[in-house]
Structure to design on (734 residues):
């Protein structure tokens, strides 16, 4: 079994993950598969950039008019008999849900996958009231048995292998189950069937809410979300307040972007559009339906030019699969519900307390793969830089880092100082060079050299070789064929022209 | 929930956005898919082919028939082959005409007629559910099922196997066409449940190893029929 990850810094949590060979391989294998699936699916569809841009515009527009669309949604949902609640904080949302559960004298709750419900920790609150809360997504059920949080937004049990899962399920079943996927899944199907039929309340998240119709939409592959919204008498849906789009037509765009980005599917096996509780003559579906609309720190991003686009996120997980850091350290290293690049930005943003989550923004190489993968083009890598800046501005910077940058500033401010520093370095390094590499773990080199080696300073520096380099280039330019030069100049003019036109066309 | 709390919630959002509350419908110039997609239409034959290819690619079975008589023969043969003991189907004329109780005397047939008690439990015990699609979408390989008193959601969800009959004339090219049809429904006319179903229930949660039939039906047939 894996150690419980209760270390307090990203570095400590990541070192657990890095020492777990299976975890690293499993995360790498699965994210690679999802990433390749996504690329294939988007290539097959064609015009992916036009779809992405359209998705971004719809999300931007909706957030810009969030109060209007939420009001419209609430009105239309109420007209269908839905109870709408507003919760400013996680605690408010939990209280509202518990009051409903008490009023219904509920003993048992079945849940379909919902990141918001993880965010507000409703399971623990229900347990305290001695109400059974069962996760019904296969992966979620497994990690619930293990007492863990999801480590991937789409594949929650990505970090566990088949033998570990067989062990957990055998304990649950009270009999030995073989490590065979079909048998394990079959056991869960049978076990949860009974739970669905007995449950008093079904709890769901919400992928999208439709303002014009008052509907809530769920994407899933297993059918458990359909179970949860079909069988129990009462349905409670937790909805992040930004999870809204204007119309069903806009849903087509989201349905084109979300499954492809998440798993490479053209559409998830089930997409359910649920509009109000069952009608008077219906024999299934919930009799009572509640939607709890949650703020819990989301409004902190509204009107903030650097972070408002965070609210555009459609929770597909593509940025996790693309992220070289996530692929190595896995989801639990991020220390909260949301992991990967989106988690690195979202967690500090939702939590107000920049200090407490300050090191998460550092767990990134700022390579921008997350932005390229994002179906609604959220500039996550820029946001990570803003977060770092805010952290320093608030005085959470480290003293040694400050000192290092002061020193860097001093040295680079004057060309003589810089030249002398490089000379000094070239001489000084002779003492610590081994096989042409710097391997010492002294002082500031410890962190880097614990895992790799530092290259030595070049024998002849770039500055020193500049004169001869410049000469080379001059000669090369003279030697350039006239035709080649013309072609290159024309290309340069074209590029400039294009940049001036501004690429904002949508199709 | 008092309207006061709602107003406070909305006012907070407006304050954060640095403006007054927006009370009139804003212009939404980016509604729906990009225009090249809104104009995207395939010929009927191509639609059918594309639907079948998408549906079978995700592990579903698909067949095309000329008449409901052919569909009936196929359903009866399939039920016999799967040794089906309990069938449940929507309360629709097209399904009554299959005359399943007569054709399959060894199977118990339940009709979701909105009157009989304990229909959910019966659906949970059924081996085979049979429904008729309201729409289908070629580009995504999906069928669309709308709930009603005589068309329970459980029928397409709880049985082990599922047969969906798809009339050719409800098979459209894109999801957007279905959405625009749904938007035509008047206020309060939307069914409580609209389900886009694209193949058998599946999961990749255990070591990314694909498992079929996790909670919903693992065996799904789409039977396309001309009339």
């Amino acid at each position: 079994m894996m150690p419980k990850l209760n270390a307090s810094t990203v570095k400590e949590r990541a070192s657990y993950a890095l020492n777990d060979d299976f975890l690293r391989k499993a995360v790498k294998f699965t994210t690679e598969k999802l990433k390749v699936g996504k690329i294939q699916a988007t290539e097959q569809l064609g015009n992916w950039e036009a779809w992405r841009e359209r998705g971004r515009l719809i999300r931007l527009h909706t957030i810009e008019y969030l109060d209007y669309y939420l009001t419209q949604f609430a009105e239309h949902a109420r007209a269908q008999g839905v109870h709408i609640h507003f919760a400013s904080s996680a605690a408010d949302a939990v209280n509202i849900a518990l009051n409903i559960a008490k009023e219904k004298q509920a003993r048992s709750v079945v849940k379909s996958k919902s990141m918001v419900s993880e965010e507000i920790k409703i399971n623990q609150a229900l347990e305290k009231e001695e109400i059974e809360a069962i996760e019904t997504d296969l992966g979620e059920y497994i990690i619930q048995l293990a007492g863990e949080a999801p480590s991937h937004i789409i594949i929650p049990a990505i970090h566990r292998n088949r033998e570990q899962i067989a062990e957990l399920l055998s304990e649950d079943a009270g009999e030995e189950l073989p490590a065979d996927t079909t048998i394990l899944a079959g056991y869960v199907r049978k076990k949860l069937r009974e739970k669905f039929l007995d449950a008093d309340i079904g709890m769901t998240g919400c992928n999208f809410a439709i303002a014009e119709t008052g509907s809530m939409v769920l994407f899933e592959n297993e059918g458990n979300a359909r179970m949860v919204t079909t069988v129990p008498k009462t349905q409670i849906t937790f909805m992040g307040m930004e999870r809204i789009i204007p119309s069903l037509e806009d849903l087509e765009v989201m349905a084109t972007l979300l499954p492809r980005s998440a798993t490479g599917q053209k559409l998830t096996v089930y997409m359910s559009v649920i509009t109000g509780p069952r009608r008077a003559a219906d024999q299934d579906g919930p009799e009572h339906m509640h939607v709890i609309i949650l703020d819990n720190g989301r409004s902190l991003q509204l009107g903030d030019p650097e972070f408002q686009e965070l609210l555009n996120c459609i929770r597909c997980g593509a940025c996790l699969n693309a992220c070289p850091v996530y692929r190595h350290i896995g989801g639990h290293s991020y220390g909260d519900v949301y992991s990967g690049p989106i988690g690195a930005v979202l967690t500090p943003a939702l939590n107000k307390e920049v200090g407490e989550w300050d090191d998460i923004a550092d767990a990134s190489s700022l390579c921008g793969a997350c932005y390229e993968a994002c179906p609604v083009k959220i500039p996550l890598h820029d946001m990570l830089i803003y977060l770092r800046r805010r952290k320093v501005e608030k005085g959470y910077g480290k003293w040694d880092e400050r000192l290092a940058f002061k020193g860097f500033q001093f040295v680079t401010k004057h060309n003589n100082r810089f030249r002398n520093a490089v000379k000094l370095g070239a001489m000084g390094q002779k003492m610590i060079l081994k096989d042409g590499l710097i391997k010492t773990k002294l002082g500031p080199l410890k962190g880097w050299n614990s895992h790799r080696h530092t290259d030595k300073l070049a024998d002849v520096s770039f500055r020193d070789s500049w004169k001869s380099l410049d000469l080379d280039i001059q000669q090369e330019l003279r030697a350039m064929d006239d035709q080649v030069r013309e072609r290159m100049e024309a290309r340069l003019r074209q590029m400039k022209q294009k940049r001036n036109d501004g690429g904002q066309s949508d199709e | 929930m008092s309207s006061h709390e709602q107003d406070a919630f909305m006012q907070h959002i407006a304050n954060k956005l640095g403006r007054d509350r927006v009370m009139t419908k804003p212009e939404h110039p980016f509604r729906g898919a990009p225009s090249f997609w809104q104009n995207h239409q395939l010929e009927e034959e191509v639609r059918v082919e594309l639907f079948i290819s998408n549906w079978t690619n995700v592990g579903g079975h698909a067949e095309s028939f000329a008449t409901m008589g052919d569909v009936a023969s196929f359903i009866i043969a399939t039920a016999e082959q799967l040794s089906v003991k309990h069938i449940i189907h929507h309360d629709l004329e097209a399904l009554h005409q299959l005359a399943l109780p007569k054709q399959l005397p060894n199977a118990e047939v339940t009709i979701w007629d909105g009157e009989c008690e304990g229909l959910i439990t019966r659906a949970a015990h059924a081996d085979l559910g049979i429904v008729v699609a309201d729409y289908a979408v070629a580009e995504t390989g999906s069928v669309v099922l709308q709930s009603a008193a005589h068309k329970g959601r459980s029928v397409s969800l709880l049985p082990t196997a599922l047969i969906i009959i798809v009339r050719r004339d409800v098979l459209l090219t894109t999801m957007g066409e279905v959405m625009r049809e749904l938007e035509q429904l008047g206020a309060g006319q939307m069914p409580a449940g609209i389900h886009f179903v694209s193949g058998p229930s599946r999961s990749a949660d255990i070591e990314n190893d694909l498992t079929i039939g996790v909670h919903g039906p693992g065996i799904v047939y789409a039977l396309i029929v001309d009339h």
